[in-house]
Amino acid sequence: MSDTTATLSTFAKDIHSGLASNPKYLSSKYFYDEKGDQLFQSIMNLEEYYLTRCEFEIFDQQKAEILKSFLANDTSFKLVELGAGDGTKTKILLKHFTNEGVDFSYSPIDISQHVLDILSDDLKKSIPKLQVNAIQGDYFDALAKLNENHFQKEVVLFLGSNIGNFSNGSAPKFLKRLGDNLSSGDLLFIGFDLMKDPNVILSAYNDKLGVTKEFNINLLRRINNELGANFNLESFEHFPTYDPITGETKSHLISNRAQEVFIEATGETYSFDAWEAIHTEVSQKYSLKSIRQFAEQAGFKVVRNFTDKNNYYVDSLWQK
Ligand code: AVJ
Protein backbone atom coordinates (compact mmCIF):
# COMPACT_ATOMS: atom_id res chain seq x y z
CA MET A 1 0.00 0.00 0.00
CA SER A 2 1.26 3.53 -0.75
CA ASP A 3 2.88 5.82 1.84
CA THR A 4 -0.43 7.57 2.51
CA THR A 5 -1.16 4.74 4.99
CA ALA A 6 -1.15 7.07 8.00
CA THR A 7 -4.02 9.12 6.61
CA LEU A 8 -6.18 6.12 5.77
CA SER A 9 -9.29 5.35 7.79
CA THR A 10 -9.38 2.20 9.92
CA PHE A 11 -11.99 0.94 7.48
CA ALA A 12 -9.62 1.33 4.49
CA LYS A 13 -6.72 -0.25 6.40
CA ASP A 14 -8.81 -3.23 7.48
CA ILE A 15 -10.12 -3.80 3.96
CA HIS A 16 -6.59 -3.60 2.59
CA SER A 17 -5.23 -6.10 5.16
CA GLY A 18 -7.98 -8.57 4.33
CA LEU A 19 -7.72 -8.35 0.56
CA ALA A 20 -3.89 -8.44 0.57
CA SER A 21 -3.95 -11.66 2.64
CA ASN A 22 -4.00 -15.21 1.47
CA PRO A 23 -6.67 -16.48 1.98
CA LYS A 24 -8.61 -13.22 1.64
CA TYR A 25 -11.00 -12.08 4.38
CA LEU A 26 -13.21 -9.09 5.29
CA SER A 27 -14.62 -8.39 8.77
CA SER A 28 -18.37 -8.90 9.33
CA LYS A 29 -18.42 -5.77 11.51
CA TYR A 30 -18.46 -3.76 8.27
CA PHE A 31 -21.77 -5.26 7.07
CA TYR A 32 -23.79 -2.69 8.95
CA ASP A 33 -24.07 0.51 6.94
CA GLU A 34 -27.62 1.89 6.52
CA LYS A 35 -28.47 -0.62 3.81
CA GLY A 36 -26.80 -3.43 5.79
CA ASP A 37 -28.95 -2.55 8.83
CA GLN A 38 -32.07 -2.75 6.64
CA LEU A 39 -31.02 -6.06 5.11
CA PHE A 40 -30.37 -7.55 8.55
CA GLN A 41 -33.88 -6.42 9.62
CA SER A 42 -35.25 -8.35 6.59
CA ILE A 43 -33.11 -11.38 7.48
CA MET A 44 -34.70 -11.47 10.94
CA ASN A 45 -38.12 -11.80 9.26
CA LEU A 46 -37.09 -14.61 6.89
CA GLU A 47 -38.78 -17.99 7.14
CA GLU A 48 -35.38 -19.73 7.24
CA TYR A 49 -33.75 -17.44 9.84
CA TYR A 50 -35.02 -19.22 12.97
CA LEU A 51 -32.70 -17.47 15.49
CA THR A 52 -34.82 -14.37 16.10
CA ARG A 53 -38.07 -16.33 16.40
CA CYS A 54 -36.48 -18.77 18.88
CA GLU A 55 -35.30 -15.98 21.16
CA PHE A 56 -38.71 -14.31 20.83
CA GLU A 57 -40.40 -17.57 21.89
CA ILE A 58 -38.06 -17.98 24.88
CA PHE A 59 -38.83 -14.45 26.10
CA ASP A 60 -42.55 -14.70 25.44
CA GLN A 61 -43.04 -18.14 27.02
CA GLN A 62 -40.60 -17.88 29.92
CA LYS A 63 -40.62 -14.20 30.90
CA ALA A 64 -41.94 -14.92 34.39
CA GLU A 65 -39.16 -17.45 35.09
CA ILE A 66 -36.58 -15.11 33.53
CA LEU A 67 -37.68 -12.32 35.87
CA LYS A 68 -37.46 -14.64 38.89
CA SER A 69 -33.90 -15.60 37.94
CA PHE A 70 -32.88 -11.98 37.32
CA LEU A 71 -34.18 -10.92 40.75
CA ALA A 72 -33.00 -14.00 42.68
CA ASN A 73 -32.73 -12.65 46.24
CA ASP A 74 -32.73 -8.96 45.30
CA THR A 75 -35.59 -6.50 44.89
CA SER A 76 -34.10 -4.36 42.11
CA PHE A 77 -31.52 -4.41 39.33
CA LYS A 78 -29.96 -2.39 36.58
CA LEU A 79 -30.62 -3.94 33.15
CA VAL A 80 -27.85 -3.22 30.61
CA GLU A 81 -27.96 -4.28 26.95
CA LEU A 82 -24.92 -4.54 24.67
CA GLY A 83 -25.74 -3.68 21.05
CA ALA A 84 -29.40 -2.99 21.65
CA GLY A 85 -30.55 -2.61 18.03
CA ASP A 86 -34.26 -1.89 17.69
CA GLY A 87 -35.12 -3.66 20.94
CA THR A 88 -38.07 -5.62 19.49
CA LYS A 89 -37.29 -8.75 21.50
CA THR A 90 -36.08 -6.95 24.62
CA LYS A 91 -39.40 -5.06 24.76
CA ILE A 92 -41.18 -8.30 25.72
CA LEU A 93 -39.08 -8.43 28.89
CA LEU A 94 -39.20 -4.67 29.51
CA LYS A 95 -43.02 -4.66 29.30
CA HIS A 96 -43.36 -7.68 31.57
CA PHE A 97 -40.97 -6.31 34.21
CA THR A 98 -42.76 -2.94 34.14
CA ASN A 99 -46.21 -4.54 34.44
CA GLU A 100 -44.98 -6.54 37.41
CA GLY A 101 -43.91 -3.31 39.11
CA VAL A 102 -40.25 -4.33 39.27
CA ASP A 103 -37.76 -1.68 40.44
CA PHE A 104 -35.31 -1.59 37.51
CA SER A 105 -33.77 0.74 34.93
CA TYR A 106 -32.72 0.00 31.35
CA SER A 107 -29.36 1.09 29.88
CA PRO A 108 -28.94 0.20 26.20
CA ILE A 109 -25.32 0.58 25.03
CA ASP A 110 -24.62 1.04 21.33
CA ILE A 111 -21.87 2.53 19.20
CA SER A 112 -24.55 4.30 17.11
CA GLN A 113 -26.25 7.37 18.65
CA HIS A 114 -28.79 7.15 15.83
CA VAL A 115 -29.86 3.65 16.91
CA LEU A 116 -30.13 4.81 20.55
CA ASP A 117 -32.26 7.85 19.65
CA ILE A 118 -34.75 5.72 17.72
CA LEU A 119 -34.90 3.15 20.53
CA SER A 120 -35.31 5.77 23.29
CA ASP A 121 -38.12 7.55 21.39
CA ASP A 122 -39.87 4.27 20.77
CA LEU A 123 -39.63 3.21 24.43
CA LYS A 124 -40.92 6.56 25.65
CA LYS A 125 -44.08 5.91 23.64
CA SER A 126 -44.52 2.19 24.19
CA ILE A 127 -43.46 1.93 27.88
CA PRO A 128 -43.75 5.48 29.30
CA LYS A 129 -43.05 4.35 32.88
CA LEU A 130 -39.70 2.78 31.95
CA GLN A 131 -36.55 4.55 33.15
CA VAL A 132 -34.16 4.58 30.13
CA ASN A 133 -30.52 5.64 30.39
CA ALA A 134 -28.95 5.15 26.93
CA ILE A 135 -25.16 5.14 26.70
CA GLN A 136 -23.35 5.80 23.41
CA GLY A 137 -19.95 4.24 23.00
CA ASP A 138 -17.74 1.21 23.26
CA TYR A 139 -19.17 -1.71 25.32
CA PHE A 140 -16.21 -1.91 27.68
CA ASP A 141 -15.92 1.84 28.33
CA ALA A 142 -19.63 1.94 29.12
CA LEU A 143 -19.50 -1.12 31.39
CA ALA A 144 -16.49 0.24 33.25
CA LYS A 145 -18.34 3.50 33.86
CA LEU A 146 -21.46 1.69 35.09
CA ASN A 147 -19.38 -0.48 37.38
CA GLU A 148 -17.80 2.61 39.03
CA ASN A 149 -20.96 3.56 40.91
CA HIS A 150 -22.12 0.06 41.53
CA PHE A 151 -24.82 0.07 44.18
CA GLN A 152 -27.29 -2.25 42.45
CA LYS A 153 -27.02 -5.66 40.81
CA GLU A 154 -26.29 -5.43 37.10
CA VAL A 155 -27.94 -7.77 34.60
CA VAL A 156 -26.20 -7.55 31.21
CA LEU A 157 -27.99 -8.70 28.04
CA PHE A 158 -25.97 -9.86 25.03
CA LEU A 159 -28.63 -11.32 22.75
CA GLY A 160 -29.19 -12.59 19.22
CA SER A 161 -26.16 -14.94 19.20
CA ASN A 162 -24.03 -11.89 18.47
CA ILE A 163 -21.26 -13.74 20.33
CA GLY A 164 -21.25 -16.10 17.29
CA ASN A 165 -19.40 -13.48 15.23
CA PHE A 166 -16.35 -14.05 17.44
CA SER A 167 -14.14 -17.00 16.50
CA ASN A 168 -13.70 -19.67 19.16
CA GLY A 169 -10.24 -18.20 19.64
CA SER A 170 -11.39 -14.66 20.39
CA ALA A 171 -14.71 -15.28 22.21
CA PRO A 172 -13.07 -16.30 25.54
CA LYS A 173 -11.03 -13.08 25.60
CA PHE A 174 -14.14 -11.01 24.98
CA LEU A 175 -16.13 -12.82 27.69
CA LYS A 176 -13.24 -12.56 30.17
CA ARG A 177 -13.05 -8.81 29.54
CA LEU A 178 -16.78 -8.54 29.99
CA GLY A 179 -16.51 -10.32 33.34
CA ASP A 180 -13.66 -8.03 34.41
CA ASN A 181 -16.08 -5.12 34.10
CA LEU A 182 -18.70 -6.71 36.36
CA SER A 183 -18.87 -7.25 40.12
CA SER A 184 -19.43 -10.47 42.00
CA GLY A 185 -23.13 -11.40 41.88
CA ASP A 186 -23.80 -9.55 38.60
CA LEU A 187 -25.53 -11.51 35.83
CA LEU A 188 -24.93 -11.99 32.12
CA PHE A 189 -27.85 -13.21 29.96
CA ILE A 190 -26.31 -14.34 26.69
CA GLY A 191 -27.85 -15.89 23.55
CA PHE A 192 -26.20 -18.81 21.71
CA ASP A 193 -27.34 -20.61 18.58
CA LEU A 194 -27.10 -24.36 19.15
CA MET A 195 -25.82 -27.15 16.85
CA LYS A 196 -28.72 -28.77 15.03
CA ASP A 197 -29.58 -30.40 11.66
CA PRO A 198 -26.91 -28.93 9.35
CA ASN A 199 -29.54 -28.37 6.63
CA VAL A 200 -31.53 -26.11 8.93
CA ILE A 201 -28.40 -24.07 9.68
CA LEU A 202 -27.28 -23.81 6.06
CA SER A 203 -30.76 -22.67 4.93
CA ALA A 204 -30.71 -19.88 7.53
CA TYR A 205 -27.62 -18.46 5.79
CA ASN A 206 -28.77 -19.25 2.24
CA ASP A 207 -32.42 -18.19 2.08
CA LYS A 208 -34.62 -18.72 -0.99
CA LEU A 209 -35.25 -15.00 -1.48
CA GLY A 210 -31.52 -14.26 -1.58
CA VAL A 211 -31.62 -11.63 1.18
CA THR A 212 -28.56 -13.09 2.94
CA LYS A 213 -26.71 -13.09 -0.38
CA GLU A 214 -27.61 -9.40 -0.81
CA PHE A 215 -26.44 -8.75 2.79
CA ASN A 216 -23.07 -10.38 2.07
CA ILE A 217 -22.61 -8.65 -1.30
CA ASN A 218 -23.59 -5.31 0.24
CA LEU A 219 -20.18 -5.32 1.91
CA LEU A 220 -18.61 -4.95 -1.55
CA ARG A 221 -21.17 -2.29 -2.48
CA ARG A 222 -20.17 -0.41 0.68
CA ILE A 223 -16.47 -0.59 -0.27
CA ASN A 224 -17.40 0.71 -3.74
CA ASN A 225 -19.37 3.62 -2.24
CA GLU A 226 -17.11 4.60 0.64
CA LEU A 227 -13.63 3.69 -0.59
CA GLY A 228 -14.05 4.28 -4.33
CA ALA A 229 -13.65 0.65 -5.38
CA ASN A 230 -14.86 -0.93 -8.61
CA PHE A 231 -16.14 -4.34 -7.47
CA ASN A 232 -18.45 -5.85 -10.08
CA LEU A 233 -21.23 -7.10 -7.79
CA GLU A 234 -22.41 -9.69 -10.34
CA SER A 235 -19.05 -11.45 -10.34
CA PHE A 236 -19.22 -12.73 -6.74
CA GLU A 237 -21.23 -15.70 -5.47
CA HIS A 238 -22.56 -16.08 -1.92
CA PHE A 239 -21.47 -19.39 -0.34
CA PRO A 240 -22.05 -20.40 3.31
CA THR A 241 -20.54 -23.55 4.87
CA TYR A 242 -21.19 -25.40 8.13
CA ASP A 243 -18.72 -27.71 9.87
CA PRO A 244 -20.71 -30.12 12.08
CA ILE A 245 -17.59 -31.05 14.06
CA THR A 246 -16.63 -27.55 15.19
CA GLY A 247 -20.00 -25.78 14.75
CA GLU A 248 -18.32 -23.13 12.66
CA THR A 249 -20.64 -21.55 10.09
CA LYS A 250 -18.81 -19.36 7.60
CA SER A 251 -19.96 -17.04 4.83
CA HIS A 252 -17.86 -16.46 1.75
CA LEU A 253 -17.94 -14.33 -1.38
CA ILE A 254 -16.44 -16.25 -4.28
CA SER A 255 -15.09 -14.59 -7.39
CA ASN A 256 -16.72 -16.42 -10.31
CA ARG A 257 -13.98 -15.29 -12.74
CA ALA A 258 -10.37 -14.14 -12.72
CA GLN A 259 -10.50 -10.37 -12.18
CA GLU A 260 -8.80 -7.30 -10.76
CA VAL A 261 -10.37 -4.75 -8.45
CA PHE A 262 -8.99 -1.27 -7.80
CA ILE A 263 -9.66 0.66 -4.57
CA GLU A 264 -9.02 4.42 -4.75
CA ALA A 265 -8.70 4.84 -0.98
CA THR A 266 -5.80 2.37 -0.74
CA GLY A 267 -4.38 3.08 -4.19
CA GLU A 268 -4.04 -0.66 -4.75
CA THR A 269 -5.22 -3.25 -7.22
CA TYR A 270 -6.29 -6.64 -5.86
CA SER A 271 -6.24 -9.76 -8.06
CA PHE A 272 -8.70 -12.60 -7.80
CA ASP A 273 -8.18 -16.01 -9.35
CA ALA A 274 -11.24 -17.70 -10.79
CA TRP A 275 -13.23 -19.15 -7.84
CA GLU A 276 -11.00 -17.56 -5.22
CA ALA A 277 -12.94 -16.96 -1.97
CA ILE A 278 -13.15 -14.07 0.50
CA HIS A 279 -14.15 -15.21 4.00
CA THR A 280 -16.65 -12.62 5.35
CA GLU A 281 -18.31 -13.97 8.50
CA VAL A 282 -18.30 -16.57 11.27
CA SER A 283 -21.64 -17.47 12.89
CA GLN A 284 -20.53 -20.01 15.48
CA LYS A 285 -22.95 -22.76 16.61
CA TYR A 286 -22.52 -24.23 20.11
CA SER A 287 -23.27 -27.23 22.30
CA LEU A 288 -24.51 -26.80 25.88
CA LYS A 289 -21.23 -28.40 26.96
CA SER A 290 -19.10 -25.86 25.09
CA ILE A 291 -21.19 -23.02 26.56
CA ARG A 292 -20.51 -24.29 30.08
CA GLN A 293 -16.78 -24.35 29.30
CA PHE A 294 -16.89 -20.80 27.93
CA ALA A 295 -18.63 -19.62 31.11
CA GLU A 296 -16.10 -21.27 33.40
CA GLN A 297 -13.08 -20.08 31.39
CA ALA A 298 -14.37 -16.52 31.68
CA GLY A 299 -14.96 -16.80 35.44
CA PHE A 300 -18.77 -17.18 35.39
CA LYS A 301 -21.07 -19.89 36.70
CA VAL A 302 -24.07 -21.03 34.61
CA VAL A 303 -27.20 -20.35 36.68
CA ARG A 304 -29.83 -21.57 34.24
CA ASN A 305 -30.39 -22.26 30.52
CA PHE A 306 -33.58 -21.14 28.78
CA THR A 307 -34.18 -23.01 25.51
CA ASP A 308 -36.96 -22.89 22.91
CA LYS A 309 -39.23 -25.90 22.37
CA ASN A 310 -37.06 -27.27 19.50
CA ASN A 311 -33.77 -26.85 21.41
CA TYR A 312 -32.47 -24.75 18.54
CA TYR A 313 -31.30 -21.84 20.67
CA VAL A 314 -30.41 -21.02 24.26
CA ASP A 315 -30.37 -17.89 26.39
CA SER A 316 -27.89 -18.80 29.10
CA LEU A 317 -27.88 -16.97 32.45
CA TRP A 318 -24.42 -16.64 33.96
CA GLN A 319 -23.39 -15.27 37.32
CA LYS A 320 -20.12 -13.54 38.03
C1 AVJ B 1 -26.29 -10.82 14.02
C2 AVJ B 1 -24.26 -12.05 14.06
C3 AVJ B 1 -26.23 -13.01 14.97
O1 AVJ B 1 -24.52 -14.51 12.43
O2 AVJ B 1 -26.60 -15.09 12.49
C4 AVJ B 1 -27.36 -13.13 9.69
C5 AVJ B 1 -25.71 -12.01 11.34
N1 AVJ B 1 -25.34 -12.99 9.07
N2 AVJ B 1 -27.26 -13.70 8.48
C6 AVJ B 1 -25.71 -14.24 12.47
C7 AVJ B 1 -26.14 -12.70 10.07
C8 AVJ B 1 -26.04 -13.60 8.08
C9 AVJ B 1 -26.15 -12.77 12.57
N3 AVJ B 1 -25.72 -12.15 13.88
From TrEMBL:
Biological processes annotated in GO: methylation
Keyword Repressor: no
Histidine-specific methyltransferase SAM-dependent domain mapped to chain residues: 11-319
Superkingdom of source: Bacteria
One MF annotation (Gene Ontology) recorded for this entry: methyltransferase activity
A Pfam entry, by short name: Methyltransf_33
Keywords noted in UniProt: Methyltransferase, Transferase
Classification via PANTHER family: ERGOTHIONEINE BIOSYNTHESIS PROTEIN 1 (PTHR43397)
Identification of the protein by name: Dimethylhistidine N-methyltransferase
Record organism: Roseivirga ehrenbergii (strain DSM 102268 / JCM 13514 / KCTC 12282 / NCIMB 14502 / KMM 6017)
